[in-house]
Amino acid sequence: MFSLEEASCRAAASTGLPAGQGGSEFRPKWPELSLRSGVVPFRVDADNCLEFLLIRRQGHPWWSLPKGRLVPGRTLAQSAALEAHEEAGIRGEIGSTPLGSYQYCKTDRKLLGPPQLVELVLFSLKVEIEEDSWPERGIRQRRWFGQEHAPHFVAPGPLRDLLRDYNSQFMF
Questions:
Q1: What is the pLDDT of residue 11?
Q2: Residue 88 resides in a domain
Q3: What's the total number of domains in the chain?
Q4: What mean pLDDT comes out for the span 126-139?
Q5: Which end of the chain is less enclosed by CB atoms within 10 A, N or C?
Q6: Residue-averaged pLDDT of the chain
Q7: Does residue 126 form part of some domain?
């Protein structure tokens, strides 16, 4: 159950995911919002089927993607790759062009303030290395899901749509 503030924040969130934008320069769709960056970690299995690596905080019902704040002095893609390593212990080839962006409600567990609406910019990450140990292993789980199953494990909204509609044209 969401608090009243978080429910109104979620209701204000917008989809916006323009898939496969041309060029490597990203222009925020909602300049008034804070930016976050994240990755869509994927691999192709032995049967040539697409799989996504999703993460979740221990005890949280929904799975999600590695994402986080921008790191000063790093690009959006570099910040996203760093979050992928910290939250999921993965490394690989990151796409140079953003897949797009969408709004979501960020709740900060350390600060007891209201949820904040932010713009999340996503990049493809072809996973090449899965480490046995990573910085947030103690608080996050990671798991591979086939493309047909992954959308059912994330919260309803733009991420669910992205995973359902993801195809090879988005990879790089």
A1: 38
A2: yes
A3: 1
A4: 96
A5: N
A6: 84
A7: yes
The answer as to whether 24 is a domain residue is no
Is 164 domain-assigned?
Answer: yes
* Closest by CA position to 164, among listed 151, 155, 152: 151
| DSSP per-residue codes, 72-106 | TTS-HHHHHHHHHHHHH-EEEEEPSS--EEEEEEE
AA letter at 80: A
Whole-model pTM: value is 0.83
3-state secondary structure of 160: helix
Rounded Cα distance, 151 and 172, in Å: 21
Q: How far is the C-alpha of 106 from the C-alpha of 6, rounded, in Å? A: 9
Residues of the domain holding 143: 4-16+30-170
CA–CA gap between residue 5 and residue 134 (Å, rounded) = 33
**Exposed e or buried b for every residue in 29-50, given b needs 16+ CB within 10 A?**
beeebebbbbbbbbbeeeeeeb
CA angle (129 as vertex; 123, 130 as ends), nearest 5: 100
Q: What is the CATH number of the domain that holds 77?
A: 3.90.79.10
Structure-model confidence comparison of residues 119 and 8, the more confident one: 119
Hey, CA dihedral for 46, 147, 63, 33, is it positive or negative?
A: positive
